[in-house]
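re: that chain from earlier
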Amino acid sequence: MDKDTFLVGTIDHSPPVRTVTVQGQEGYLQHGSLPNKTYKLDESWCTFVQHRKTVVFVDRFANSVHFYNLDNGTTTTVQNSDIREPEGVCGGGDRGSVFLCSTGTGSVVQISARGELVKVHSVDMVNPYTISVSMDGRTLVVANDIVNKVKTIKLFRVEY
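^ sequence. v structure.
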C-alpha cells in the first residue's frame, strides 16, 4: 500500500483483509465495506492496485470481485458469467488492469481498475489457480492447482 504498509488476506478471521506494517503492527482499512465474513483457505484472495488506491478482493464461491477505492470510499462489485470460482488475483502492472484466474471456466479474466470486464484470456489449462503479471502488464505467468499430480506453469503475452 505504501513503503511501510502491506495488504494481507486473512484466513478464519474477519475482516478478510487487513494491513500490516513493516514493524508488524496489524490494522484495518479505513474506507470501503469489506464483506463481514470469515473465509477458509482458498475461498478468497486480495491484491492492491497502487496507482488507483484500490483494494481488489475475490470471493471464490460468490463468483464475485470487489473493488474498494481507498481515496473516495466507493465500492464496485463485478459478477459475470466469465467469472466462475475466481482464485488468484494480481494487479496488471502500469496498465491498471486486474487479472484473475477463473477456475470454473479455465481462463484468465482481465478487469479494468474501475471494474469493467476488459477481456477473457484462454490459458489452455485445467484449474488455473495463481497468477502474476509483469510491470508493463504484457506478460502473465499462470499456474494451475495440481490436477492428477500434474502441475502446469505457463507464460504468455497479453494482447490488447
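The chain is about 0% helix and 45% strand.
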